[in-house]
Amino acid sequence: MMRSIRTFVAGVRGLHPLWQIWLLIMMVVNGILPFFFLPELAAIVTLFGMFSGAFLGLVLVHLHGFTKLLGLMHVPWVPMIAAQIGLYSGFNSASNYSLWLTAAILITAISLVIDAIDVAVFFKTKKD
After folding, report:
1. Using CA atoms, how far apart are residues 59 and 119, in angstroms rounded to an integer?
2. What is the CA radius of gyration of the chain?
3. Which residues contact 23 (CB under 8 A, 6 or more apart)?
4. Residue 95: partners with Cβ closer than 8 Å, 6 or more residues away
5. pLDDT, tens digit, for every residue of 92-116?
6. pTM above the 0.85 mark?
7. Three-state SS string across the chain, please?
8. Which domain holds residue 20?
9. Distance between CA 23 and CA 2 in Å, rounded?
10. Cα–Cα dist 102/41, whole Å
């Protein structure tokens, strides 16, 4: 597993700096900020989605290396975003919780679109 972690970290370091910033934003919004909103259900679901996705990512790196197939690591984010949307009660600028959940939904949605494109590109190039 340590080899998979090293491969993943090396792959991230090899990405364009803007992608590295995007990954950092995703990790902060979905992997760190939810701790501040525990025991809210949205925070629990988000942490579960984040950490189960990270585990899946390490398995994918172990099996296939650092490729666009890693977009599949965010499959657990599909039920995560469904729960986030279901628990969303509307934006209330006076609430840090509302601000975080709004950001989490937007970032997760954008990430899932990017992931779908990456996985499609992976399979298209594999096919050719």
Report:
1. 16
2. 15
3. 12, 15
4. none
5. 777 899 999 999 999 999 999 999 9
6. yes
7. CHHHHHHHHHHHHCCCHHHHHHHHHHHHHHHHHHHHHCCCHHHHHHHHHHHHHHHHHHHHHHHHCCCHHHHHHHCCHHHHHHHHHHHCCCCCCCCHHHHHHHHHHHHHHHHHHHHHHHHHHHHHHHHC
8. 2-127
9. 20
10. 15
Tokens standing for 32? 């760190």
Identify the residue whose tokens are 């080899």: 3
Bond from prior residue into 34 cis (ω within 30 degrees of 0): no
Specify the number of domains making up the chain. Answer: 1
User: pLDDT digit string (tens) for 38-89?
Assistant: 999 999 999 999 999 999 999 999 999 999 999 999 999 999 999 999 999 8
